[in-house]
Design brief:
Layout: E1 5-8, H1 14-25, E2 29-34, E3 44-47, H2 53-67, E4 73-76, H3 91-119, E5 122-127, H4 130-134, H5 140-160, E6 165-172, H6 178-181, H7 185-193, H8 203-213, E7 225-228
Parallel strand pairs: 1-2, 1-4, 2-3, 4-5, 5-6, 6-7
Helix pairs in contact: 1-8, 2-3, 3-5
């Protein structure tokens, strides 16, 4: 396996941290972005606000300094939620989620491909959600932002596929995180009953899909959407 220089946005907790740790354990050099505090123990980190172009540019410059080489793998994971029913959702709640989850991923990809084009190689993985394909009441903003990542990845694939750059999407379903741990037991059971696998995923199962997509074995896979959802969104 080729060791790569990886930047994981929002890699300081949850799914992002699991991805970063898994890739580091696989032999890649990994830097994570975080908005505040310190990077997780054992990982290098840089500050980044994905809604700000200057911050994104500086984060890549700082990451490349730590790595000693251009970033050749971007995992765009940073995201937020502002759930609300459609009729009650404010412009601010809609705009904030789109600006972070979709436009933020665009800003990071735009900066990442500068080095990838020069090297004629690169991997971009966008972390979407089953909600982006399946829909969810109260999440019109989040669903739209996550669905948009599919179009972003496929357009990048068509634009830069001939330069050795792949762009793919991983779409997790319900994952065992602090957020799902806080759900009432009856709601957990209801959610699990709708999942053919009958359980929530572990963050490491999402990370395993990302690990494959950045590997040499996935060189001919681009523009793909890989669900990690226990069958919840099958057919979508």
């Amino acid at each position: 396996m080729t060791a790569r220089n990886v930047l994981v946005t929002g890699g300081n907790r949850g799914i992002g941290l699991s991805i970063a740790t898994t890739l580091a354990d696989a032999g890649h050099q990994v830097v994570v972005t975080h908005r505040s505090g310190e990077p997780p123990q054992g990982l290098q980190g840089v500050r980044c606000e994905v809604t700000d172009t200057a911050s994104v540019d500086q984060a890549f410059t700082d990451a490349e300094s730590l790595l000693g080489a251009p970033v050749d793998v971007l995992v765009a994971n940073a995201g937020v939620t502002r759930d609300q029913l459609l009729m009650r959702m404010s412009d601010e709640d809609f705009d904030t989620v789109l600006d972070t989850n979709l436009a933020g991923a665009f800003r990071c990809a735009r900066r990442a491909v500068k080095g990838m084009i020069r090297q004629r190689r690169g991997r971009i993985v966008f972390i979407s959600s089953v909600v982006g394909l399946y829909g969810s009441p109260g999440q019109t903003n989040y669903s739209a932002s996550k669905a948009g990542l599919v179009g972003l990845a496929r357009s990048i694939s068509r634009e830069l596929g001939g330069r050795g750059i792949t762009a793919n999407v991983v779409a997790p379903g319900f994952i065992e995180t602090d957020m799902t741990a806080d759900l009432p037991d009856d709601r957990k059971k209801a959610y699990q009953a709708s999942i053919p696998a009958g359980r929530f995923a572990q963050p490491e199962e999402v990370a395993a899909a990302v690990r494959f997509l950045v590997s040499d074995d996935a060189a001919y896979i681009t523009g793909a959407v890989i669900p990690v959802d226990g069958g919840l969104g099958m057919g979508h």
